[in-house]
Design brief:
The complex is a heterodimer of chains A (about 600) and B (about 600).
Chain A: H1 8-29, H2 33-65, H3 70-119, H4 122-127, H5 130-137, H6 139-172, H7 174-180, H8 184-221, H9 223-228, H10 232-285, H11 290-331, E1 353-360, E2 370-377, E3 382-386, H12 393-400, E4 408-413, E5 416-417, H13 423-428, E6 430-433, E7 442-443, H14 444-449, H15 457-466, H16 470-473, E8 483-484, H17 493-507, E9 511-515, H18 523-537, E10 541-545, H19 549-554, E11 557-562, E12 565-570, H20 572-575, H21 582-591, H22 594-597
Parallel strand pairs in A: 3-10, 3-11, 6-9, 9-10
Antiparallel strand pairs in A: 1-2, 1-4, 4-5, 7-8, 11-12
Helix pairs in contact in A: 1-11, 2-3, 2-6, 2-11, 3-6, 6-7, 6-11, 8-10, 8-11, 10-11, 15-17, 17-18
Chain B: H1 2-5, H2 9-13, H3 15-32, H4 34-52, H5 60-64, H6 69-119, H7 122-127, H8 130-137, H9 139-172, H10 174-181, H11 184-221, H12 223-228, H13 232-285, H14 290-331, E1 354-361, E2 371-378, E3 383-388, H15 394-399, E4 409-414, E5 417-418, H16 424-429, E6 431-434, H17 445-450, H18 458-467, H19 471-476, H20 494-506, E7 512-516, H21 524-536, E8 541-545, H22 549-552, E9 557-562, E10 565-570, H23 572-578, H24 581-597
Parallel strand pairs in B: 3-8, 3-9, 6-7, 7-8
Antiparallel strand pairs in B: 1-2, 1-4, 4-5, 9-10
Classes of the chains: A alpha/beta (about 600), B alpha/beta (about 600).
C-alpha cells in the first residue's frame, strides 16, 4: 500500500537514497537504542491489551451473563478495568518515552548542525543567505520531529495492533473473520486511490498557498509602486484570480476528504452489517456465541482506524526525509579553510608578518582582488593601509586571519606559513577589530569578554580605564551590565569603537589588525579614540586600514593599495610630497577635510 | 468572542449553503443513530429466534437461506447498509456545503483585506512592520476561516449528535444511560483544560523557538568576530543552552500530549466498563439484552469525538477571535482620501509647473523635521537636479510630489493648484516615478514595464525599454520580454533593474518625471545615453536626485540640500563659482575619477 504508482525507476532510486538517509539518521538515535527498544516492547504490550478488551467482554457475556454469575461478572469487570488502566499507563509511558527520545535526538542533531555551520569557512556564509542557514538549524530539524518522536514507533504499534486484532478474531471464529474482513480489499483500494489523489491535491494546495503568500508579501513591500502607478484595480483583479485558484485548490481537497472519510465509515459499517448477517446466522446454528458477536462488532471498528491513519503517517515520513536530505547536505559540506595535518603551536610570537607575492580572488570567475602583494610588518611596527573603495584593503585582513586562504604566494608570521599554524594559535595572536557586526545585543561585559570566564571584571575595568572607555561606561545604567541593543545601536559610533578596543586590549594579542570605522565621530571622542589606539598599538605589530587622519600621520609605514596592488609605500611626510602620486589624491579625497576637525 | 459575531454577515451572505449544510449534518446524525439501534434489534431478533427454538439449523447456510431467520437477518442487514449509505452521502454533502462555504468566506475576507490594503496611505506602511501586515493578510485569515469551517461544523455536530444519541439512549434504557454517560463530563472538562494548556505551552514554545533562531542568526551574522576571537566553543555552548531550553519546553508540552489521548480512551473505556457491569447485571435480571450492550457500547464510541471536540472547538474559537481582532485593527485604519471635499474635478491634465511653498515635513511619530521650510519653483519643461548628503531629505522631498506623504506645513502646488485639490488618480497618472530602491515584481520583464501603463502595446513596451537603454539586455534573454524576474526567474543586475524601472516610468509618457538616485548602478556612458533621450523630448518636467554630479550638471537648476534645508542653489557654473559644498563635492568626484583611471 505504500507504492504510489510513480515510475518504478525513480522509485527505486528514491528508495536507495531513503535507506541511506535513514541509516544516517539512526546514528543520532543510536545512543537511545535501549530506550527505543523499551518503547517498542511497551508498544507491543499495549497493542496487545487493546484487542484483549473485546475478548474480555466476550467472556463476560458468554461465561457469566449467560450463567447468571454476578460475582463472575464483577470479577471480569474489574479485570477489564485493570487492563484498561494498564493500557492507559502503557500508552502514556510509550508516548512520553518516544517524545523524549525524539526531542533528545533533535537536540543533538540541531547542535551538530549548528556547530557544523559555525565551523565552516567564511566564504560559505557569503554564498548562503543567513536566512537559509537559520532554516537549516530550526525549521528543517522541526520537520524531523514527527518522524523521530513518535512516527516509527507508532507505525509499528499500529501494525501490531492490526495483527493482534486479526489474531483474536481468527481465534474466536475464522469463518466470521473472513466474512468481516472481506471488505478490507475495498478499504485498501480506497485508501490507495485517496492517497494518490490527495497527494496531488495537497501539492497543488501548497503551491497555491505559496503563490498567494508571495503575492501578498510582494505587494505589501511594493505597495508604493502599485499606488504610484494607479494599478490598484488591476492588481486587485490579479489578486482575486490567485485567491480564486487558492480557494479552488482547497475545495478540491475538501472534496477528496468529504469522499474518503464517509467512505471509511460506510465500509466499516458494512463490515458490521456482514457480522450481523453472517454472525447472526452462525449464532442460530450455535457455532458462534453472542459474546463473539459483540466482540466482533468492536473489532471491526478498532481495525479500520489504524489503516485509515497509516497513509497519513507515510506522508509525514516522506516530508521528514526531504528535510533530512537538506540537513545532510550541510553536514557533508567540506571546510575549505582546513587545519593543517600537523598544526604548529608556537610558544611565543614576536609578530613579524610577511606577505610574499600573494594572489587572491573571491570567485573563480572574478578578477584577482590581490595581485602579487608583498610587504612586511616588523615586530612592533605600525602599518597603515590606505586606498579607494574596492582597492583590496579588507581582503588583506581576510587573508591574514585565514578567513580565506591565499591562492598563490604565502603569508608568514615569524617565518612560519600561517597555513601551518593551528587556527586557534593563529587567531588568538590577533586582536582583530572589525568595522561591522562587532557588537551584539548583550551586556557591555559580554561584548568585551565574549564570554571568556577567565577574564575578570577587574581586567576589563583596567583595560577600559586605559583606553578611557570607562568614562562613558560608568554613565550607562548598570555600567558593565548595561544591555546593548542589536549591533550596539544604543551607543554612539565612537563609543562602539572604544568598546571594540577594550575587547582587543583584554584579549592581549601580539598583533593588532584594525579596520577603522568610516563614520566621523565628534571631536571629543575623536581625541579619545586616537589616544586609545596609541595605547592599543604600543609594543604590538599592527595593520590598520586607515580612515582617520591621525592614524596615517602616526603610522611607521603607509601602504597605498590601488586595484589590488601596493602602488606606493612610505611615511605620510614622504608620500605627500610625491607629485601626481595616488596617495596625494587619496589624501585630498579622504583625509584633508579632517584636518579642520583636528584639535 | 464578540469579535467573531461581527463577522456573522458572511453567514447571511451564504445563508442557503449554511442552512442546507446544517440540515445535512443534523439528518446525517439521525441516520447514524440507526446503526446501533439496528444492531440491537437484529441481535434481539436472533436471540428471540433461538429462544423460541422452533427451527433448528445445521449449517450457517441453512440459516441464511431459511425463510424465517434468513429473511429477518437479510432485512436488518439491508436496513443497516441503507442507513449507513444515507449517512455517508449526507456526511459528504455536509462537508461539501459547510467547509466549502468557509473557504468561500475566506476568499471574500482576503479580497476585502487586499482592497483595503491598497487604499492605505504610505504613512501606514512606513510605521507598520511589514511582517505584521503580512501575518494579518495570510495566517490570521486562515484562523478566522476556522470559525466558519470546523468551528461551526463541530459545534452543530456536537449539539445534534449528542442531542439525538442521548435522547435515544434515554428512551431505550434510562438507567444504563446514566451509567454510560457518567464519565463523559470529565472527558469534556479534560479536553477543554488540555487544549487550553496546549495553547499556552505552544506560545511558550514559539517564543523559545524564536530565541533559538535568534541565537543562530546572531552567531552566523557575526561569524567573522567569532572566528577572529576563537569563540566557537562559547557560541556552541550558548546555542546548546537555548537548544536545551527548547527541548525542555517541548517536553513540558509532550507530558500533556502524552496524557491526552490515553486518558481520552480511559474515560471512554470506563463508560464501557460501566455498561458491561451494570448492563451485565440487567441482562442477568432480564431487564436488558446483549443487543442493548452492543448498542450502548457503540453509542459511547459515537459520542467520543463530539464530546472531546467541545473543548477543542472552544479553544479554536478563542484563537479565531484573537485573529479577527487583529484583522479588525487593520481594517479600521483610515484609507487615504483620494478625493476630498476640496477636490477640483475640473482638473484633468497636468502641465508640470511645480512649486514648493514653505513646505515642512516630519515622519509620523517622530519629533524632528526632515524638511524645513522648503521653497522651490520648477517651471514646466525644465530639468532640476537635487544633491546632498545621505539623510539630507532629498527622497522625502520628491515623495511629496506624488503625495506618498503630505506635508505638515506649507503647500506643494502643481500648475498653481494645491496638489491636495488635484484628484489623486490624475496627479499620479501624470507622474513617472523611479524610486531609489528599485522594486520589480516577480513577473515577466514585459509585464513589469507595462506596469506603468494600462493596456500598453508591444511596441510601446519596446520603445520605453529602448529609451531606458535596457532593450539590448532584454533581447539577449532567451524569452525576451517574457523572461520571468525574481525568485522563480532570473536575477537582473542592479543596473538592469534600475533601467527597467525607468522604462516602467517612461511608458506612461509622464508630464513630470522623478528619478530618485535611480542611475547609481548604471555606468556613466549608459547614463549619458539615457539623458540624451530624455533631453530630446521636450515639455516634460524632470527632477533628478543624485549623488553623482555628472548626472545633474546639465540641469537647468540645481538644489543642494542639507539637514532638510536648501543650502545652495543655481546652475552648475553658479555653484562652482560659489565654492561651497557643491564645489567641494565636485572636486572630490573629479579626483575619484582620476584615481579610477590610473
Amino acid at each position: 500500500m505504500t507504492s504510489t504508482g510513480s515510475s518504478s525507476d525513480s522509485k527505486q532510486k528514491n528508495k536507495a537514497v531513503d535507506s541511506n538517509l535513514i541509516r544516517r539518521l539512526y546514528i543520532y538515535l543510536h545512543p537511545f537504542r535501549w530506550l527505543l527498544l523499551l518503547a517498542l516492547v511497551l508498544t507491543l504490550l499495549s497493542a496487545f491489551l487493546g484487542p484483549l478488551r473485546p475478548y474480555l467482554i466476550q467472556i463476560a457475556v458468554d461465561d457469566y451473563m449467560a450463567a447468571d454469575d454476578y460475582n463472575g461478572l464483577f470479577r471480569i469487570t474489574v479485570i477489564f478495568a485493570l487492563v484498561l488502566v494498564l493500557e492507559t499507563l502503557l500508552m502514556i509511558a510509550v508516548t512520553y518515552l518516544t517524545r523524549w527520545i525524539g526531542q533528545s535526538t533533535l537536540f543533538k542533531l540541531r547542535n551538530a548542525v549548528f556547530n557544523k555551520i559555525q565551523s565552516l569557512h567564511v566564504q560559505f556564509f557569503d554564498r548562503n543567505p543567513i536566512g537559509r542557514l537559520i532554516t537549516r538549524t530550526t525549521n528543517d530539524i522541526e520537520a524531523l520531529s514527527d518522524l523521530l518522536s513518535s512516527g516509527v514507533v507508532n507505525m509499528i504499534g499500529d501494525l501490531f495492533r492490526i495483527i493482534f486484532i486479526m489474531g483474536f478474531m481468527f481465534y474466536m471464529s475464522w469463518e466470521l473473520s473472513l466474512v468481516a474482513l472481506s471488505t478490507l480489499p475495498v478499504l485498501f483500494y480506497a485508501t490507495f486511490v485517496f492517497k494518490s489523489k490527495v497527494r496531488v491535491a495537497f501539492l497543488n494546495v501548497r503551491d497555491q498557498i505559496a503563490r498567494l503568500n508571495s503575492f501578498v508579501q510582494e505587494h505589501i513591500n511594493g505597495m508604493s509602486i502599485v499606488q504610484l502607478f494607479n494599478r490598484e484595480e488591476k492588481e486587485l483583479d490579479r489578486f482575486k484570480k490567485i485567491n480564486y485558484d487558492h480557494t479552488g485548490a482547497h475545495i478540491k481537497t475538501i472534496f477528496y476528504f468529504a469522499l474518503f472519510w464517509p467512505a471509511v465509515e460506510v465500509l466499516s459499517s458494512l463490515a458490521m452489517a456482514l457480522v450481523i448477517w453472517y454472525g447472526g446466522a452462525s449464532a442460530l446454528t450455535g457455532t458462534v456465541t453472542f459474546g463473539i458477536l459483540l466482540a466482533f462488532i468492536q473489532y471491526v471498528r478498532q481495525f479500520f482506524l489504524p489503516i485509515r491513519d497509516l497513509s497519513e503517517k507515510f506522508n509525514t515520513l516522506q516530508s521528514a526525509l526531504a528535510s533530512s536530505e537538506r540537513l545532510f547536505s550541510i553536514m557533508d559540506t567540506e571546510n575549505v579553510v582546513k587545519e593543517s595535518a600537523n598544526p604548529i603551536t608556537p610558544e611565543s610570537v614576536k609578530g613579524h608578518i610577511r606577505f610574499e607575492n600573494v594572489w587572491f580572488k573571491y570567485n573563480r570567475t572574478e578578477d584577482y582582488v590581490l595581485k602579487d602583494v608583498s610587504f612586511e610588518v616588523r615586530p612592533g611596527e605600525n602599518v597603515a593601509v590606505v586606498g579607494a573603495t574596492g582597492a583590496g584593503k579588507t581582503t588583506l585582513i581576510n587573508v591574514v586571519s585565514r578567513f580565506y586562504d591565499v591562492e598563490k604566494g604565502a603569508v608568514t608570521i615569524d617565518g612560519i606559513d600561517i597555513r601551518e599554524l593551528s587556527l586557534n594559535s593563529l587567531r588568538s595572536n590577533f586582536g582583530v577589530v572589525l568595522q561591522d557586526n562587532a557588537l551584539f545585543s548583550g551586556t557591555v561585559l559580554e561584548n568585551i569578554t565574549l564570554g571568556r570566564d577567565d577574564i575578570s571584571l577587574e581586567t576589563v575595568q583596567n583595560a577600559a580605564h586605559m583606553v578611557q572607555a570607562d568614562r562613558f561606561i560608568k554613565k550607562l545604567p548598570g555600567e558593565y551590565d548595561f544591555v546593548l541593543a542589536e549591533r550596539g545601536a544604543s551607543l554612539s559610533m565612537g563609543q562602539r569603537q572604544l568598546l571594540c578596543f577594550v575587547r582587543a586590549m583584554v584579549y592581549d594579542p601580539t598583533i593588532i589588525i584594525l579596520d577603522e570605522a568610516t563614520s566621523n565621530v565628534d571631536s571629543e571622542t575623536e581625541s579619545l579614540v586616537t589616544a586609545a589606539m596609541d595605547k592599543l598599538m604600543k609594543g604590538r605589530s599592527s595593520i590598520v586600514i586607515a580612515h582617520r587622519l591621525s592614524t596615517i600621520q602616526h603610522a611607521d609605514k603607509i601602504l597605498v593599495m590601488h586595484k589590488g596592488q601596493i602602488r606606493e609605500t612610505g611615511t605620510h611626510q614622504h608620500l605627500i610630497t610625491v607629485e601626481d602620486g595616488i596617495y596625494r589624491r587619496l589624501y585630498e579625497l579622504q583625509y584633508k577635510d579632517q584636518a579642520a576637525v583636528m584639535p | 468572542m464578540r469579535e467573531l459575531f461581527k463577522l456573522n454577515h458572511y453567514f447571511v451572505r451564504y445563508k442557503w449553503s449554511i442552512i442546507l449544510g446544517t440540515l445535512f449534518l443534523t439528518v446525517s446524525n439521525m441516520f447514524l443513530v440507526w446503526i446501533p439501534v439496528l444492531i440491537r434489534q437484529s441481535m434481539d431478533a436472533v436471540e428471540e429466534l433461538r429462544a423460541t427454538g422452533e427451527h433448528h439449523y445445521d449449517t450457517v447456510f441453512d440459516a441464511i437461506f431459511s425463510p424465517e431467520a434468513g429473511v429477518v437477518l437479510a432485512e436488518y442487514s439491508v436496513y443497516l447498509i441503507g442507513a449507513v449509505l444515507i449517512y455517508g452521502v449526507l456526511l459528504f454533502l455536509t462537508r461539501q456545503t459547510l467547509i466549502v462555504t468557509s473557504r468561500k468566506i475566506e476568499y471574500d475576507i482576503r479580497n476585502n483585506i487586499f482592497t483595503h490594503l491598497q487604499k492605505l496611505p504610505q504613512s501606514y506602511f512606513s510605521r507598520t512592520n511589514s511582517g505584521d501586515i503580512y501575518v494579518r493578510a495570510t495566517e490570521d485569515v486562515m484562523r478566522v476561516r476556522e470559525y466558519f469551517g470546523p468551528g461551526f461544523m463541530y459545534t452543530i455536530n456536537t449539539i445534534t449528535r449528542a442531542g439525538i444519541i442521548i435522547t435515544i439512549m434515554i428512551l431505550v434504557n434510562p438507567e444504563l444511560t446514566f451509567w454510560a454517560l457518567l464519565p463523559l463530563p470529565f472527558l469534556s472538562v479534560m479536553a477543554y483544560w488540555v487544549s487550553g494548556f496546549i495553547h499556552d505551552r505552544s506560545n511558550e514554545i514559539q517564543e523559545q523557538y524564536a530565541r533559538l533562531a535568534g541565537r543562530a542568526q546572531e552567531a552566523f551574522s557575526s561569524i567573522r568576530l567569532i572566528k577572529a576571537y576563537v569563540r566557537e566553543t562559547y557560541e556552541s555552548k550558548r546555542f546548546e543552552a537555548e537548544s536545551e531550553q527548547y527541548r525542555q519546553s517541548k517536553l513540558k508540552l509532550d507530558v500533556i500530549e502524552s496524557l491526552f489521548h490515553p486518558l481520552l480512551s480511559l474515560f471512554i473505556g470506563f463508560s464501557v466498563v460501566l455498561v458491561i457491569w451494570q448492563g451485565g447485571m440487567m441482562v442477568i435480571e432480564g431487564m436488558a439484552t446483549v443487543g442493548n450492550l452492543a448498542e450502548f457500547i457503540i453509542y459511547v464510541t459515537f459520542l467520543t469525538w463530539p464530546v472531546a471536540s467541545l473543548g477543542y472547538t472552544l479553544n479554536l474559537l478563542q484563537r479565531s477571535a484573537a485573529s479577527q481582532k487583529r484583522i479588525a485593527m487593520l481594517m479600521n485604519e483610515p484609507e487615504q482620501i483620494s478625493d476630498g471635499d476640496g477636490s477640483d474635478h475640473a482638473i484633468s491634465h497636468i502641465r508640470g509647473d511645480i512649486e514648493f511653498h514653505n513646505v515642512s515635513f516630519k515622519y509620523p511619530d517622530t519629533a524632528e523635521y526632515v524638511l524645513e521650510n522648503i521653497n522651490m519653483r520648477i517651471p514646466n519643461g525644465k530639468t532640476v537636479g537635487i544633491v546632498g548628503r545621505t539623510g539630507s531629505g532629498k527622497t522625502t522631498l520628491v515623495q511629496l510630489i506624488p503625495r506618498l506623504f503630505d506635508p505638515d506645513k506649507g503647500e506643494v502646488r502643481i500648475d498653481g493648484n494645491d496638489i491636495k485639490k488635484i484628484p489623486l488618480l490624475i496627479l499620479r497618472k501624470n507622474i513617472g516615478y523611479v524610486p531609489q530602491e528599485t522594486f520589480l515584481f516577480s513577473d515577466t520583464v514585459g509585464e513589469n514595464i507595462a506596469f506603468g501603463k494600462e493596456s500598453a502595446g508591444t511596441d510601446e513596451i519596446e520603445t520605453a525599454a529602448e529609451k531606458a537603454q535596457v532593450l539590448d539586455n532584454i533581447m539577449e534573454f532567451d524569452k525576451k520580454f517574457d523572461t520571468v524576474l525574481g525568485e522563480r526567474g532570473i536575477t537582473l543586475s542592479g543596473g538592469q533593474k534600475q533601467r527597467t524601472a525607468i522604462a516602467r516610468a517612461l511608458i506612461r509618457k509622464p508630464s513630470i518625471l522623478i528619478l530618485d538616485d535611480s542611475l547609481s548602478a548604471v555606468d556613466t556612458k549608459t547614463e549619458d545615453k539615457i539623458n540624451d533621450y530624455l533631453r530630446a523630448e521636450t515639455g516634460r518636467t524632470t527632477l533628478i536626485v543624485s549623488h553623482r554630479i555628472s548626472s545633474i550638471n546639465n540641469a537647468d537648476h540645481i538644489y543642494v540640500l542639507d539637514e532638510g534645508k536648501i543650502i545652495e542653489q543655481g546652475t552648475h557654473q553658479d555653484l562652482l563659482k560659489d565654492g561651497g559644498y557643491y564645489a567641494s563635492m565636485y572636486k572630490k568626484q573629479l579626483i575619484e575619477k582620476e584615481l579610477a583611471e590610473i
